[in-house]
Each structure stands twice: as C-alpha cells, then as structure tokens.
Amino acid sequence: MRRPRAGRHMVTDAGATRAGDPERDTLDKAADENFPVAPFFLPRPWRDDLMAVYGFARLVDDIGDGDLAPGGADARLLGVAPEQADDRLVMLDAFEADLRRVFDATPRHPLLRRLQPTVRRRALTPEPFLGLIAANRQDQLVNRYETYDDLLAYCELSANPVGRLVLAVTGTTTPERVRRSDLICTALQIVEHLQDVAEDLGRDRIYLPAEDMKRFHVQEADLATPSAGASVRALVAYEAERALGLLNEGAPLVGSVHGRLRLLLAGFVAGGRAAIRAIAAADFDVLPGPPKPGKLRLLREVGVTLRGEG
Predict the structure, then answer these.
(1) Smallest Cα–Cα separation from 180: which of 254, 114, 235?
(2) What rounded mean pLDDT belongs to the chain?
(3) Where would I find the H helices in 66-147?
C-alpha cells in the first residue's frame, strides 16, 4: 500500500457518491494509487485488513488536504458543526477523537468502524495511526522544510507508519524489518514529493529542502513555471538519487520475508524505482505533471527486486 499522501487525486465522478457514502468513495480511490494497496494475490484476511488500514490513511489525508467531497457527510459523521466543516484542524481533532474510540468504544465514522475489527484481530496500537494524523496537522502549520533532516522527520510521521502497519497486519514485525521498512516508506514519500512539486506548490507547500534549493540556486518562482529549467532539473535529480539510495538500502526487506508478502513488498520497492526512472526519463522535468511509469517498466522492476538486484 502507499503512504498516506500518495494518490491524493480527487475522484471527481464520485463526489456526489461521497456525500452519501463516504466509506465507499474513499475505498474506491485505492485503484488510483501509485503502489499496490491490497492486491488480489494476498490472502483474503490480509486484504481485508489492509483495506481497512488504507481507508483510515486515505480519509485522514483527504481531511488534511481539504479533499473531502462537498456536502459535509464526513463532518456530520464526526460530530463537527457545519460551520466548522472546512476547518481542517477541527476536523483532524474530531477524527483523532473518533480514532481513540476504535480502541475503547464504538467509533462514529464507518471507515473507523471498519478498522476496529482489524485493530483487535492484529493487536494494532494507536501510535502509527496517531502519527498519520500528526503529519496532517503538521501540513496545516508547516509548508516549508529548511533541511533534509527536517523532511525526514516529517516522513517519520507521514510515511513510515504505513509500512509499520503492513508489517503488523501480516505478523512479520521485527526491529530490522521496521528499520528497512522505514527507509522504503521515506523513499516513496520523497519520490511522490518529486512527482507532485507543481501540485504541492498549488497548495502552498514545498517539500524540497530549502538548503538544497539554495545549493542549486532554485527560487520558489522557478517551481511555478510550466517547464523546469536546468537548476530545477538538477535539484530534482539530486533528490531522486537520494530517494533511490534509501530504496536500495531498504530493499533487503523483500528478501527477509516469503511467499505472497514478498511479492507485495517487492511491488512497493519496484514502484518507487520505476517512478524514479520515469522522472529520469522526463529529464527530471516534473513541473508539467507527475511522470508516471508504464506497467511494463513496473513489472521489470518487480522482477529485478525479487531477484535481489539493485
């Protein structure tokens, strides 16, 4: 599955449906993600539980990005007054309160009611879910990152909990696997930041470290042009290489597990590598829109990853 932000694209045709069925529309977005959410080859219990976790991650991301469909259905479900339904921090607070009910009561939102059996069955703890909420709160308060370390700290909240939840759902958590998973998830987050530079700027967010922008002589205005100049391309290439290094360091996670889980994790790593290759094929010009890899490239990367090749 992807990290929470990945696939933030609104499903416009389903907007009206979302007003009447927030659960169904959120889960329908799974098909549009960059990376597999709960593919068919997984055992059904894993698929059901991963989709429940995905529903949480997708909804908290939609709240944080202001991508909830018109009509206020989610606000009503969370007990938020109509006049506060557009206040993202209020909505995130209400969502956190409903999340806590997952662990000791009955939540209000159907996506959280769907999550509750998974939490009990897999003995999941609140921490990774709270991390994802904290990341979306941070998005309301912080829209620039001075250093690469600052960005990594954000990824610790916004991306790494997703991989930890995958390991927990599949019963494969160990300290070393968590470490490798964190590297992969952070890399995937950075790759999506690179794909979405223009979209993020439209939300007044920049996830390229300011210190790196200065190093490559990139101004914020350079990110608002229809096509990237040489300095922006050099910066994107630098960040892409960093992300690839993280992916490669995390990739031994794939070989540490067996069976269908190994294929799933290979899909995560391969998706990141294929996305980086797509960015490179676009000559690192991400400003016209997110460069996306084709299915053939993705399948090739899956094969490379399963063979343990870099």
Answers:
(1) 254
(2) 90
(3) 73-78, 88-104, 110-122, 127-141
